[in-house]
Amino acid sequence: MTPKLALKISGGLSSPSKMPGFAHSIPAQACNVGSKLRAVAGSICSKCYALKGRYVFPNVKNALVRRLQNLTHPLWVEAMAFLINKKAAKNFDVFRWHDSGDIQSLEHFENIAKVCEATPTVRHWIPTREYAVVSAFKDKHGEFPENLTVRLSALMLDGPLPTAAAKRLGVTVSGVSSDESKVNCIAYKQGGICGSCRACWDKNIEEIIYPKH
User: Fold this and answer.
1) How do residues 14-71 score in pLDDT, each as one tens digit?
2) What b/e string do you get for 149-159 counting C-beta neighbours within 10 Å, with b at 16 or more?
3) Could you tell me the CA-to-CA distances from 71 to 48, 138, 179 in Å, in that order?
4) What pTM value is reported for the model?
5) Which of 30, 37, 72, 148 is least enclosed by beta carbons within 10 angstroms?
6) How far apart are CA 34 and CA 20, in angstroms?
């Protein structure tokens, strides 16, 4: 694998400004559960941040589409692992899946798991509303990669967290609240930047609440 080929196959990595590392993003319009929730008043997806701002710039939109189209490439796992390990060699040790978009299928999630296993020095975090896919993976494989933190994301602003499903699957949760007293994400207190915080990647932190944005 060469850097040029890895970039061509994977569509490249994204670099969210608040994140301490790199990420992989696809169009929010392609979310399976999220696309349905966008039409539901009060849902978190009805105010999706990935449908505005820099995500609507033509160059960003084109990159998102390329990544989506390349998910089924037979060398996608190898290409993604190559790029992430290359970043890890430069002291980047955390990776976020889907600062835009979500898991597309069980096969997609299985490939993400393979990338995690092929990048053992990196901690991965994947927030998702695709509870059924996560459940199907658990039923089929039993365990998630040790270096992958799966967070089931709540569906509604100020709504209940999917705690029961998370406990059954052995994963963590996250939600969004308009009540500042319930927010435990510290990024909003420091210019929207994670800084030294790695709570989202920490399996021991069962619940992360983000502010409405």
Assistant:
1) 888 888 989 999 998 999 999 999 999 989 998 887 667 677 677 788 889 999 999 9
2) bbbbbbbbbee
3) 23, 21, 38
4) 0.95
5) 72
6) 25
